[in-house]
Amino acid sequence: MQASSPDKEQIIGVYEKTTIAMQLTKFNYDNKIVRDFGIATIVWGIVGMSVGLLVAIQLVWPFMNFELQYTTFGRVRPLHTNAVIFAFVGNAIFMGAYYSLQRLLKARMYSDFLSRVHFWGWQLIILAAAITLPLGLTTSHEYAELEWPIDIGITLIWVAFGINMFGTIIKRRERHMYVAIWFYIATFVTVAVLHIVNSVQLPISMWKSYYLYAGVQDALVQWWYGHNAVAFFLTTPYLGMMYYFLPKMANRPIYSYKLSILHFWSLIFIYIWAGPHHLLYTSLPGWVQSLGVAFSVMLIAPSWGGMINGLLTLRGAWDKVRTEPTLKFMVVALTAYGMATFEGPMLSLKQVNAIAHFTDWIVAHVHVGALGWNGFMTFGILYWLIPRIYKTELYSKKLASAHFWIGTLGILFYAIPMYWAAVVQGLMWKEFTPEGVLKYPNFLATTLQIIPMHLLRAIGGTLYLSGVILMTYNLVRTMQQGRLLANEPAEAPELAPVTVNERAPHRRLERKPMLFMVLALITILIGGMVQMMPTFMISSNVPTIASVQPYTALELQGRDLYIREGCVNCHTQTVRPFRSETVRYGDYSKAGEFVYDHPFLWGSKRTGPDLHRIGKKYPHKWHFDHMLDPTITSPGSIMPPYPWLIEQPLDTATTKAKLNAMRLLGVPYTDAAINTANTDLREQAESIAAELGQQGVDVRADREIIALIAYLQRLGTDINVPISTVTNE
């Protein structure tokens, strides 16, 4: 006979009596570390967004590149993405996590020392990125451009954060781990796996390395990382903060505990499979592309489950939404999350991807998530949190509301023109005349057509940044009128008693953080292993082409210059199997053409034309003039000039080391080729310089421009492809 369950009043009564009977322990929450990460969030947010505004303006007025090698679009654009993702968003994550963890676990952080190490270590990593990226010290991998010494620093600081977090969880005074902590755990383990797998590099020098993977395999690993960096750095920790801060702001419990369980486990399982949708119509094996599409479509269910759980938490609190700026920011943040997570699966559909990929649609999609989801939620949390740790009221709700509307207009002015530009790009690139020829053969025609949209985008960025500056003033005045409660007194029993709901399987799991972490790790490893292991272990997945040979020493040096200047930020190197692309660029790209490419350089955005078949299409002088001043060959071009390539001598001290490293990675360089590398390099350079001399260009053979020309002239020439007659300037 089943025992009858006690009623709610009995449970509450027993719990209250037990709690009173237990001795309360007094302790202090560490608000200083929260304040420090909050200030860093604000400072780096202004820096990162200012650099982003500069990048946007450079695509309208090229003179804003300042003709300096450290401020070109190619070098500054990764500085912007790293500053916004890892400096602004990263510090915001740690701010929210350190505040909520302590209160959810009823415990001070495990180690004040580790908290300090984490804070200052993270700021030093950001500073290192701010110095190295403009210097051209980059790996070229999207969202992972930082070179190997900084990668090691990131690993160490991430481990420090993990020890501090799990140490706090273990010494907690609250038996069960709340939903937010599940997302923090998944974030920690997944980001650790992503970072380690994607950062396997062979160092050449202190600031130069080559990726272990090549070509198709490197592309798969990078976008497995790139997509899931968005998932587990820009999404899951923010969902954790949403589950904590939204109920606090609304003074209401989360809508559905069961939905949060379904949301969490389905999200972390499905998300990890979706990376290949970034590589549709490339030479990635078709079965991997199909898996990416299938799981991307499925991803909308858990994503919207989280959004619905958040929005329905506000049932009955809509009057408060109208008056509280913090809740306004949260509502728009959740709406932006819903839009971005609908758009992602839609963009993974091959019919949509065929038009949208490589266009400004991707830029709009990313920024709806970044500005709306990450930005607005960060602002809402800052407005709610700062007054509480300073024990005061927000200086001005009116200024906060003004920030909300300015920021919302900024998002609209940013995203809508980019969607419009994307439609223009996608259609113009593919349009043929009734006679069967490309209607817009000149790529530059499309670029010039969308400049007004880029100007509107810059206006939107200006509005958004203005709102952030307004918020900064508001929060500074709030801090000035209050006083930081660095050590906030608190008390709690050593461990809360077991409740009746302890019988539920997931409730039991919430008591076991290490088991929870292992299960989360297994859940996220499945998708990556299924996709990557066959691609790495079955050679037929990446068939070789006999005519494809390793780069010469000069071409390899030129390729590294191409990476240093960030050319991959504007140009792709993969021709998709569409009539519009093969007519414009040449034969579609094959997997075997990239077997010696460490790293791959397929790119993700066509601000300029694809370059995979550019080799021998133009004379050396064309490339020389194009780098000296792009408007010589392409009137109206928005590409910056690169005069320093003509002035600076090529550094050949590392040539042998680079070839030796490539041989270790499987590139078949012989001993003779390595030993005579610089001799062969000089001979090829002198040949190119001599040809330039015959074409009326006087340039020394030891200049960097010679190596870059050698690399560009090699692209796409290893297989017998027809040279397109279409002009692509």
Topology:
Layout lengths: L7 H14 L2 E7 H28 L14 H33 L6 H21 L15 H23 L8 H20 L2 E5 L2 E4 L3 H19 L2 H15 L6 H15 L14 H13 L1 H13 L5 H6 L1 H24 L1 H7 L3 H30 L7 H34 L12 H7 L1 H31 L5 E7 L11 H5 L3 H25 L15 H12 L14 H6 L35 H9 L1 H4 L10 H4 L7 H10 L6 H5 L1 H18 L9 H11 L15
Antiparallel strand pairs: 1-4, 2-3
Helix pairs in contact: 2-3, 2-4, 2-18, 3-4, 3-8, 4-5, 5-6, 6-7, 6-8, 6-9, 6-20, 7-20, 8-15, 9-11, 9-20, 10-13, 11-13, 13-15, 13-16, 15-16, 15-18, 16-17, 16-18, 21-29, 23-29, 28-29
How many separate helices? 29
Give the overall shape. Answer: globular
Derived structural class: mainly alpha
Strand adjacency order, main sheet = 1-4
What portion of the residues fall into strands of 2 or more residues?
under 5%
User: What is the rounded distance between the termini?
Assistant: 83 Å
Into which percent range does the helicity of residues fall? 55-70%
Integer-rounded radius of gyration: 27 Å
Mean pLDDT: 93
List segments where confidence is low: pLDDT < 50 over at least 5 consecutive residues.
1-8, 10-20, 722-729
Say how many strands there are.
4
Quick one: biggest sheet? 2 strands, antiparallel
Supply the key terms.
729 residues; two-stranded antiparallel ribbon; globular; 3% strand; disordered N terminus; single chain
Structural commentary:
This protein is 63% helix and 3% strand. Strand 2 (201-205) and strand 3 (208-211) form a beta hairpin. The termini are far apart. It has a two-stranded antiparallel ribbon. Strands 2-3 form a two-stranded antiparallel ribbon. It has helices at residues 8-21, 31-58, 73-105, 112-132, 148-170, 179-198, 215-233, 236-250, 257-271, 286-298, 300-312, 318-323, 325-348, 350-356, 360-389, 397-430, 443-449, 451-481, 505-509, 513-537, 553-564, 579-584, 620-628, 630-633, 644-647, 655-664, 671-675, 677-694, 704-714, and strands at 24-30, 201-205, 208-211, 487-493. Helix 13 (325-348) packs parallel to helix 16 (397-430), helix 16 packs antiparallel against helix 17 and helix 28 packs across helix 29 (704-714). Mean pLDDT is 93; it is low at 1-8, 10-20 and 722-729. The longest helix has 34 residues, at 397-430. The radius of gyration is 27 Å and the shape is globular.
